[in-house]
Each structure stands twice: as C-alpha cells, then as structure tokens.
Amino acid sequence: MLTSRRDLEAALDTEARDWFTTAVAQAARASASPASPAGGTAPAGGTAPWESAFCSAGRRLGAAHADSGRVHLLVEAGADPGTLTRLYHRGTAAERRAVLLALPHLDRLADGPADVLPLVEDALRTNDTRLVAAAVGPYAAARLDPHTWRHAVLKCLFTGVPLTAVHGLADRARGDAELARMLTDYAAERTAAGRPVPPDLTHALTLTGAPHQEV
User: Fold this and answer.
1) N or C: which end of the chain has fewer CB within 10 A?
2) Position 214 pLDDT exceeds 80
C-alpha cells in the first residue's frame, strides 16, 4: 500500500524530508511545463532533475520509504507511458518495481489506453518475486486479457508469490472454468512429482466455483 505523502514526510528525518520536498517540487514543475520530460523523452541537456531523484530515492530515503517516494514522484510528474517505459527499462529492480506500483495511481493511464501493459508483461516473465508481486496489482486486474491474467496467477504459484498480491482475484476467478482447469492440471503435476499442493492453489480453485475435487 502506498504511504500517503503526509505520512511519508512524517516518517523521514529532516535531511531526507527536505530532499524529498525538493524532488516533489521538481516533479511538479516538470508536469506543469509544456516542455515537460514527462512527455516521454529525456530533456536535451540530459536527465531531468526529478528523474535523477527517482533513481537516487533508495539512497536518500532508505529502503523502507523508497517505493512510496518514487511513486509520489511519478504521480506528481504525471509520468506518461514513454517516461515510464524509459525509467523501467533503464532502472534497477527496485526502480522497476516502483514504476509498476505507480500504475494504478496514475489516473491518466488508468482511464486511458493500456499503453504500459508491456511493462507488466515483462515483469511477469521474470523470476523476481518483488516484480511479479508488483505486476499483479490493480492495473493488471483492470487491463490484462483473460489468457495473460490466468498465466499471471500461475506465475505467482510457480514463484511462491502469495495470491493475496493478485488484485481482484476473487472477482476475476469467479466462474473461470479455464483457470480451474489450469490450476487442476498444475496440482496434478505437483502431486505426480511427490510435491505438496500450495494452499493458495486450493483457495484459488475454490474461488473459481469449480466442483470440489481432491487436488
């Protein structure tokens, strides 16, 4: 869950809070400027100040607050698909995670075309559990097609990401016979290999409404 800006600032020491306040102001100016780097390309002179702050947030804010700090910067800047894509592909795993976490908070993206679904799909191809967990949030719940969403659920089971991370699981799983088949097949594979069936799998299968069966 995203920490509110007020709570985040309250949790920071003076030096970190001053740095964050400056970075947010830089992001706000970029958003208001007609030549804003949030338009998808870096400014001619190099990296925009707020983007540099996005990259250095881990060092400046600490690991406990970096996610929220980065998300607030992206939202304040009104980062568009081009900017998000650039920051994601150039970023560290922590920076990529922040981009994914920001997606549902960017109203322009949430209400517009699914321009950044390739970022979600890229994260789901990794075995980085922090990226997988961030990828299956509200944006994915609203935007992923049924086939890709089902495979995202399976990816969570494969990598050990708790299905509580899958936003809207109960709603999308309800009545999904194909998901039920995939879950049942995966459970059978694990049983045949002498491996336990994860409780999350049984729970997800129950959510589909499939007839009860031993898995």
Assistant:
1) N
2) no
